[in-house]
């Protein structure tokens, strides 16, 4: 199923901008608060399903849609001063802009390094270059299968990371400890790059830029938070609107629908964000045939891959996350591995005190790479290095590092912080 972008660069403009291409405060925060107050959206589980929404909110949204369709009349002032119009970011970058620049349409290591340094300052990336990164990564991800096979040559290695959740400074610490992504030092990031942490845009642009620079240097799997529903609830959408603008929200949602769902390393290690399935007999070929170009459904194989968790009891049981979700036992894991001639399942999706947990008689490892999750869990982070040919997991743990004084969920709707 072809997934065409419905956005052009003209859709990702803003009426008020500075010479660096960043949004100026326009007082819209008050309107956003009023809108939030009138919505009264409630959620019944982690997925953020809506129970009620006030009629007033719907009317306001409908009115806004109607208003946007009406062309604005040209004023004498705008005709006399063309420069007063919002710029087209395909061509316009102010001379005073001192941040990272993509030269000759090519994303280089020098560009990525400078971008990461700018993010640390902190300084935003010009929207023109953010747009280029997102368009390039969409094209790359769209061409990949739903299940990606990774080959690690003899004597080489790959590093698997779990949830990062917008903790950009901890991501930089991973690179400090283990080296930057490259063809000689490849990474697999296993979903949940964004949400909750308040530096999600910095995380996702960094990972996307490395993938654009060298597709075999970094692999990206989809997590349950790479969805529009979760992004609305847990902060990424608000962060994008604040740091870029609302036009990028839909574009990121389209890109997330292109992410692969699982990876297999050297035909032996199965890597997935959530876990295994609500039914037995699932083969790797079934995963390859999943149509992933959509928002995550509420049931089926794709749903299970993104949301399920392991349990200590055999069989399958209810999940603490919600009534439609489930957990799977050691017997389920071993049957899946045997049916598909695999040795190990690596998954993420859950914070662990040590940053990892080994379960199911050593056949399943959970890895979580966001230390001191949400600035309050006190957990360590971890990543796993696999070296060919034996692929014996080497687990490295690390502590959280300091970050600017911006609290987690800073960009989330205030009502969503209660659930």
Automatic annotation (TrEMBL):
Region ranges (Disordered): 52-85
Active site, UniProt feature: 225 (proton donor/acceptor)
Subcellular locations according to the entry: Cytoplasm
Cofactor: Mn(2+)
Organism superkingdom: Eukaryota
Leader sequence residues: none
Enzymatic reactions: O-phospho-L-seryl-[protein] + H2O = L-seryl-[protein] + phosphate; O-phospho-L-threonyl-[protein] + H2O = L-threonyl-[protein] + phosphate
EC number(s) given by UniProt: 3.1.3.16
GO terms under cellular component: cytosol; nucleus
Molecular function terms, GO-annotated: metal ion binding; protein serine/threonine phosphatase activity
Family matches, as SMART domains: PP2Ac
Serine/threonine specific protein phosphatases domain ranges (all copies): 125-402
Biased composition (Basic and acidic residues): 59-70
Pfam families, A to Z: Metallophos, PPP5
Entry keyword set: Cytoplasm, Hydrolase, Manganese, Metal-binding, Protein phosphatase, Repeat, TPR repeat
PANTHER family in the cross-refs: SERINE/THREONINE-PROTEIN PHOSPHATASE 5-RELATED, SERINE_THREONINE-PROTEIN PHOSPHATASE 5
Family affiliation: Belongs to the PPP phosphatase family. PP-5 (PP-T) subfamily.
Protein's UniProt name: Serine/threonine-protein phosphatase 5
